[in-house]
Every structure is written in structure tokens, then in C-alpha cells.
Write a structure and sequence with these properties.
homodimer, 7 helices, 235 residues
């Protein structure tokens, strides 16, 4: 198990892979400019979504245009790792999928093994993290455990959900620069809890960008600006 | 009373003026590129400061470099309008100066007369507002009354201080795009009240940028980025 098919991705290269992680098989995807890349970003998808969901592809493309390779995997109980098929459930179903998929421990191990696999083939490069909502549920524990992440975009998550105690416990260990996106009218993760999690982040270099609107309504300019932010700070 | 001396300002033109506003005399300053400007920004200084305080000059220079003229006046009880001379007092002294200087009503009238004066000489142009702390105490009532402001940078102010009831009452009338700067460890205007004021702003196009640190410790990148923001949105 390792590299699967390779295909064109809007002029860049996309390669799927499957790797072993402990007793599991983790499906992932890796995008790279045809001339290679000197930096890497890890893209953590949101709850009920998967490694090739719409905005992850958009982000991959934006980073590729800036010469940065991108890596995504399906999180616990999500995407190709969803035993029940393509569920699109509510919060309770999401929490069940996360937890029965192994939660924080599985996610952290799988992202670690995936990075190791990519670094084995392409070498060690400066690496960043982009992930909001479940992308932050995966991101904070991974960044705290890995210590290689030079900058992160996080958000849409708070003192909330099935791994909130991990998030609140591990956030103080985050020491890299962080851009944190928050939606003032978040109907899933209430803004108050998001502000609490932002406060807990240990880094002094953190900026919260708060906008009106619902959980999934981050303005487009925050996406493009977050890519500029990471492009500047992954080093 | 009108234009006073003109001088060079780092390659741009600076002109002081004094205008009548109701029964008062308002001292102001106007900066313009030598070739003129098609847009204007109003710069509201912070409490205990004045129209030519350090960061106001920095902002003026940044806007001028983008081809935008700038206007600043001394707020109520401040700068050349401080009858007691150059006080640099604490919060109590500041509140006394603001209130005995005429507070919200005086500030709003004086900014209105100043804009009228500048528009009389240079014509009506798209206009923006930049002002945090006391610059927001002046800005929210002025923007609510004037309706000409096409975008504003506000912040460091909340449900706080001598005109807090005006701010909370008038914030819902703000309908232009707003960038709102907040400092998470603000020792003067607590962050909770700042978030309340941000929430009250009536515009749907508002973004809060929150950073760690004290009241006067807005990171430099927020200054430069706010200038980019207004340069984009003053139209």
C-alpha cells in the first residue's frame, strides 16, 4: 500500500495514497506543482466532509499557485473511512462518527504517519496547517504533538464537541503563529466557546478574525487571506 | 479663520486650518498629495492624544502613499483645545476632558463642519474613517449622523466610558463596511465590552481582528492592513 493513481489537477499533480497507521489504513491525497515544492501545507477537512471536499480543493489550488504542496487525509470515521457509507448527518451522527472512528488519538496518529510518509518520499520541508471546525479538532492535538508546524489557520471550533477537553488542554501547547477564524452567528459551535479556545492558545502570535454569519459562511476573502497568511508564515 | 501655514510632509503637503463650528474654533490639519487626491480619509485620534500624534502621522503618510488625502482635528478637550495645557492624565482626567469639551455632540458637529470645509475647497469625494479608542468614540456618532462614510476602521472601544450610551445606541445605525480592531488584554477598555460594541454594529460587512496585548499594543501589521482595507473600500 502506498501511491495509487496520479492525475492532473488544474495543471498541478494530484496523487492518491493509502498508508498503514498502526492497525489502520489511511486514505490520503497529495498535490504538488509539476516542478516540485519547497514547502507543504496539511489540509484538515470539516465534520461530515472528506479529504477532497469542495473548499479543500479550492485551498489546495490556491496553495499550489503559491508553490506550496498540499496534503489531506480522511479524518476518523469520515470519507472513505466511513463504514456506513456517505452519511450526511447532524451533530449527533458526526460526534458518533468521530468517536467510533478513534477520535483525537487516531487522528493525531494518522496525520503523523501521513506526514512521515510524505517526508519519506519528498524530504523534510517547512510545513503549515489549515483546518477549521473538525479541521481544528484534528489540528490542535496534531500541532501540539508534532512541533513541526510553523504556522496554522484554525477556527470554527471552541470549548465544544466530542474532544473539547483535549482541545482546551492542548491549546496552550500551540506555540506557532495562528490565524483563528470565528463566525459570530455560529449555530453549531457557539461564538463564546470559540473565543474561549482562542484565548487558550499558547502562542503570542495569534489573531482572531471574526465575521457575522453562520458556521459554514466564512467570507471568501478570509479563505484567500488565510492562504496569503500561511504563505507568509510557513518557513 | 481658515487656512494657516502650509508645509512639506515627507513629499506631501500639510496644511493647518482653523474653522468655526457653532460657537467654537476647531483646529485641524489636512494632508494631500501634490497632485491632489480623489478620495479622503478622516483620522480620529485616541484619548489624551491630538491631531498630529505619532500614529496619526504614520497613517496619514500611508494613506497619502495610496493617493488618499487625510483630515484630522483635535477632539473635544484635546490637543490645542485643551484649556489646561498638555495634560497626560489617566482615565478620570480623560473622561473629564471629553465631557467638559462637549463630548459626543461637540465632536459630531466639529467633524461635520470640518468635512464641509474641506469639501468646500476640494469638492465632494468618497470618504472613509479611521479611528480607534477615542477615535471610535468620535467615529460611531459621526458616521451614524453623516451617512457619507463608505468604510471605517474602528476599535479599542466598547460598552465603556463617558459616551457609552451614545455608542451602544448609534452603533446599529452604522451600515458601511467596518474593520474593528480589538486587543484581548486591553487594560483600559475590557475586551468583553469591545465585543459587545462590535456585535451592535448594524453593518453586515464587519470583521473583528483580535490580537493579544494591551490597549496601545495593536500590532504594526494591523495598521498597515487597515490602510489596505480602507484603500480598497473607500469608494
Amino acid at each position: 500500500m502506498s501511491w495509487l493513481q496520479e492525475k492532473d489537477f488544474n495543471g498541478f499533480t494530484e496523487r492518491k495514497f493509502e498508508i498503514p497507521s498502526y492497525e489502520r489504513t489511511v486514505p490520503g491525497v497529495y498535490w504538488e506543482p509539476k516542478s516540485g515544492a519547497k514547502r507543504l501545507v496539511m489540509l484538515g477537512h470539516g465534520g461530515t466532509m472528506h479529504k477532497r471536499t469542495g473548499y479543500i480543493l479550492t485551498l489546495a489550488h490556491l496553495f499550489l499557485q503559491n508553490g506550496i504542496a498540499a496534503l489531506a487525509i480522511d479524518g476518523p470515521g469520515h470519507g472513505e473511512r466511513d463504514p456506513a457509507g456517505a452519511w450526511r448527518g447532524g451533530q449527533e451522527e458526526f460526534k458518533k462518527a468521530w468517536t467510533s472512528g478513534g477520535g483525537t488519538k487516531t487522528s493525531t496518529e494518522d496525520w503523523g504517519e501521513s506526514l512521515k510518509f510524505i517526508e519519506g518520499d519528498f524530504g523534510v520541508r517547512p510545513v503549515g496547517w489549515w483546518g477549521v471546525s473538525m479541521g481544528t479538532m484534528m489540528g490542535i492535538p496534531f500541532i501540539a504533538s508534532c512541533k513541526k508546524i510553523s504556522a496554522a489557520c484554525l477556527g470554527l471550533m471552541g470549548n465544544w464537541g466530542p474532544n473539547k477537553s483535549d482541545l482546551m488542554k492542548l491549546a496552550p501547547e500551540i506555540s506557532c503563529p495562528v490565524r483563528f477564524l470565528a463566525q459570530w452567528d455560529d449555530e453549531i459551535v457557539p461564538i463564546g466557546g470559540c473565543l474561549e479556545l482562542f484565548e487558550k492558545l499558547g502562542t503570542k502570535k495569534k489573531t482572531l478574525h471574526g465575521n457575522p454569519g453562520a458556521h459554514a459562511a466564512i467570507p471568501n476573502f478570509e479563505f484567500t487571506d488565510s492562504v496569503k497568511y500561511l504563505t507568509k508564515h510557513i518557513k
